[in-house]
Each structure stands twice: as C-alpha cells, then as structure tokens.
Amino acid sequence: MNYSEYDAADFAADASFQAWVLYDMDTVDFWASWQSAHPEKEPVLHEARSIVLALRFRRQEVSTEEMNAVKNQIDALLDDAANKKNNGQPRRKVLYALGAALAAASVIFLAVIWYYSGSHAPENIIVQTGFGETKTVQLPDGSMVQLNANSSIVYPAKWQQDKVRTVALTGEAYFNVAKSPAGLHPKFRVTMPEVTIEVKGTAFNVYNRHQQVQILLEEGRIVVNDSLHMQPGDMMLFTPGAHQRLLADATQLTAWKQHRLVYREESLIHVAQQLEDIYGYHIQFRNKSVEGLLFTGSAPAADPVILLKAMATVHQLKMTQHNSVIIFE
In this structure, are strands 319-322 and 325-328 parallel, antiparallel, or unpaired? Predict the structure, then answer.
C-alpha cells in the first residue's frame, strides 16, 4: 500500500491504522517507523486518529441496520464529490468505515448526524488541540477539562440521567469533575483503550500516549479498571497488562497547565519524546549514548526552543534545526 498518498479518510478506514490508534501492539513498530519517515503527514494522521477514536466511542451503540441505512444515504450523496476529487475518474469505492464517510465531505457528515440524532446537533462532540495548543473545555455537567497539546476528548452532546457521564481521552488532560450534578448520573468515567477511570467528584491529571497511561490524583478518590483505588497524591503508571505505583512530582507533571515546561533529572530521550508529542518535532540523537543523559530545566511552553538550546548547552551538543526536524550531535 502506498500510504504516502492517503488522506485522513483513507487512514481512518485502514484496518492496520485503526489497530495502531487503538493500541494493538502488533502494529506499533510499523506505524511508529512510518510516521517518523513521513513527518509531512502528521496533520493528516492527527485528523485520522480523531476520526477513529470518535467512531470507537459511537460504534458500540450503532446497529447493523443503522449502518446499512446510513451507507445507502452516503452512496447517493458521495457520487458528485468523489468524481470531482478524482478529476473525472470513476469514484473511489464507498468506504464501509463510517470514519471515511465523515471525512469525505461535509454534506455527508451532516447527513449522518441527521440520521442518528434527528437534529442538526452531533450526538458526540470532539474537541482536539494542535501541536503547541491547549484548551479549556466545560462539559455539559459543569466539569472542567484542561486539554494539553496534541490531545483530544470525545463526549456526548446531551447527557442523560440514566447514563454514566463518559469522556474518551487521547493525549493528556487535567479533569476537575463536578460532584453529583443535579439531573445527571452521579458517576463519571474517563475511558482509554485499556484503562477506565471512575470518579464521583475529584481533580486528576491523565497522560495517555505510547501505550502508557499515567494518572496523578490531586483531590478526591478514583477507581481504575473497577478495582484499583487511588488516594490524593497517588500516581500510577499503566502499561499493557501491568501497572505500578510511582513517586509523583505534581509540580512537574502538571506544569503544562501553567503553560510551563518543567523537567527534573529526566533523560534526554524522555524530554525529546514529550516535545515530539506536544509540538510535532522530530528529534534525533546522532550518538545514541547521549539519550540517557539527565537534564533539569524549564521554559515557557510558548517557546520550547529555549529548552532545546539548554539541553544542547548543558551536555555540549551541537543542535541543528530544519523546520520540525531537530538533530543533536
């Protein structure tokens, strides 16, 4: 497959890409390598990832009959848009993943929304941030979510009293959950592929990237995966099939909320990975032996280059930057 020619709709409909987004370990090496070799496709991958996550959230509630009915509507609506896109060539086969349909054209997106909800309001709301961007979101129950860069949440537009308040998260966010809001379910859940957090009213930070989930609880009480109870000050690390308790530095972990980058005795490769996640950089170390060197420093989140230059200065490295590609040697 020539993935370099794919758009967001194509990626969202690809089984291998879907498996990678949903943390299938068999696909991690391939897609990590492909993404690193094609930095120009990062915005497209980000859009496709959001589509896959939104559909995972919705797919559990959609029957086969509903899907077939919507696909029939999509068949009728897609002809003109697809023919124009392919410069008069026969239109591409209608994608049977609803994600491709959502991305193909805005008219199809509106048709699907109309079919499922009976109105012009989407059933699920997707909020995402770009590289270097943060957002504060107020949920329908009054809960507040601070979304870090390159992250997204998906939640129902209309919350009902008989359904647990649920938010799907990719990336990193800080939650301040409203406790037992009137007229809504008392329970609140944050869902990720292998970790589910249940709370009644509390404040916590969640980091969900690279098959790792880190949870820092600041206030209240939460239960993870229906069995693990966490108390204020606890920090847990979850990896596929395992978890461990960590010593937390709350100031460092939540510094992004104050628009700061803070690192204390962190390896250069760890700092580089976080800067790649947040800003879309592609950082390379010519000498692999320096990746484990430790670094302590801070900088404004709006100017990460200060931090990069500090890393080079502290360890006497030469730093070269070509757009988003940064090389240390």
Answer: antiparallel
